[in-house]
Write a structure and sequence with these properties.
The chain contains 11 helices and 10 strands. By secondary structure, it is α+β, with helices and mostly antiparallel strands.
């Protein structure tokens, strides 16, 4: 049996040294030292050996097993290293190649317009004021000369949270809060950007949620001509130096006199047209009083514009819903502007 074991060792080592693939190595390992391999087959005959022969044969069997495992492990390491080197060569990275540019986001077109409007007016000495979106009936209506049951409230169908609390229908409440904060001191020059809410059906030109920017100036000897000059400067910075404006008489409960403001636009065919962009007027005496100012001493003007409308005109967009549907193909157009 000892001779059989030594012969098996010699045969196995010779064959294992010549093995060419990892699969072939695994098969030979099973053949020689597996549970049903040649070494196990020989050891089944140990029961026929004498007590003196068993330890000797057992020692030789262990040496054969160790010799086979040593060669198998060495050859396995060689195959593993060769496979690793082959993969490294195949997957080699050229570190001199330029990196892949990561996609970058950009400002939403509405945010771009808001920032531009803020820049224009802060450049004229205005400060930006903000207020709550959930507003009281007093600040949203009553302090703006819209008492309860006033017919003008029908134009601003509202989302009421309680009997006295609602989602603001315009950013004009911020003007009242700014006036109260000044406690009768002037001058006041603020713009009030923010989100507003009205019960409206969504279509190409309407939304239940949109953005407004209101402006307020209060001081002594503030005139309608100051308002017109301010809006002309804004229009030219927003739409171009050749832009002209015109004021048409209108009605707002919180201003008197009131006006709608149109600006000139040139169509693709070269035709020059007037398009409405905002409403404005001189602050109503009752609104001045509610804000803590004596209308016999102080005067002021106010204006309000829809951000979406300005953006539609500025960028030539035909549907307000494009601003809210998160279509990346639409939004990417403005990332480079």
């Amino acid at each position: 049996m000892k001779e059989h074991l030594l012969a098996l060792k010699e045969e196995a080592l010779e064959v294992l040294e010549k093995v060419a693939t990892a699969k072939e190595l695994a098969d030979l390992r099973v053949k020689y030292s597996g549970k049903k391999g040649a070494l196990t087959e020989i050891l089944r005959g140990m029961g026929k050996l004498s007590a003196e022969e068993r330890p000797v044969v057992g020692q030789v069997a262990n040496e054969v097993r160790e010799a086979i495992e040593e060669v198998v492990n060495r050859k396995q390491d060689e195959f593993t290293k060769a496979e690793t080197n082959e993969r490294l060569q195949a997957e080699k990275i050229d570190v001199t190649l330029p990196g892949r540019a990561l996609p970058q986001g950009g400002l939403h077109p509405l945010n771009k317009v808001i920032e531009q409007i803020e820049d224009i007016f802060t450049g004229m000495g205005y400060r930006v004021a903000e207020g709550p979106q959930a507003e009281t009936d007093y600040y949203n209506f009553e302090a703006l000369n819209l008492p309860k049951n006033h017919p003008a409230r029908d134009m601003q169908d509202s989302f009421y949270l309680t009997e006295d609390l609602l989602m603001r229908t315009h950013t004009s409440p911020v003007q009242i809060r700014a006036m109260e904060a000044m406690k009768g001191e002037t001058p006041i020059k603020v713009i009030c950007p923010g989100t507003v809410f009205r019960r409206d059906d969504d279509d190409a030109t309407h939304s239940f949620q949109f953005h407004q920017i209101e402006g307020l100036v209060i001081g002594k000897d503030i005139r309608m001509s100051d308002l017109k000059g301010t809006l002309l400067q804004f229009a030219r910075e927003m739409f171009g130096e050749s832009t002209e404006i015109r004021l048409r008489p209108s009605f707002f409960p919180f201003t008197e006199p009131s006006a709608e403001v149109d600006v000139t636009f040139v169509k693709k065919n070269g035709e020059r047209v007037w398009i409405e962009i905002l409403g404005c007027g001189m602050v109503h005496p009752k609104v001045l009083e509610m804000g803590g100012f004596d209308p016999e001493v102080y005067s002021g003007f106010a204006f309000g514009m829809g951000v979406e409308r300005i953006a539609i005109l500025k960028y030539g967009i035909d549907d307000i819903r494009h601003f809210y549907n998160s279509d990346l193909s639409f939004l990417k157009q403005f990332a480079r502007q």
